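subagent[fold] <- orchestrator: predict structure for attached chain, return tokens only, no commentary.
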Amino acid sequence: MNKRYQEKILTNINKDEDSGCWMWKGQISNSGYGKLMIKDDSNRTKTEGAQEVSYIAFKGPITENSLVKSSCNNRLCVNPDHLNLVKNA
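subagent[fold] -> orchestrator:
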């Protein structure tokens, strides 16, 4: 788990009590998904998907050939309880 990423996620959400979704309130891509700037292990800044960063922050690394998908089908939801890895076909 990554505390720095957790802080970035938690400061950019509104929790929806009805659905349990953590609604991303930061930048949004043209495709409707949240995005944010993070520093990688080499200290370089890059843009990443908010769902991917949330998964890494709260659950761990994203395995090779996998994608992060939300079980609630909400593009702005970054609740790690709603995020799962699926194999990239």
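orchestrator: received. Logging for downstream: The chain has one domain: 3-87. The domain at 3-87 is CATH 3.90.75.20 (Homing Intron 3 (I-Ppo) Encoded Endonuclease; Chain A).
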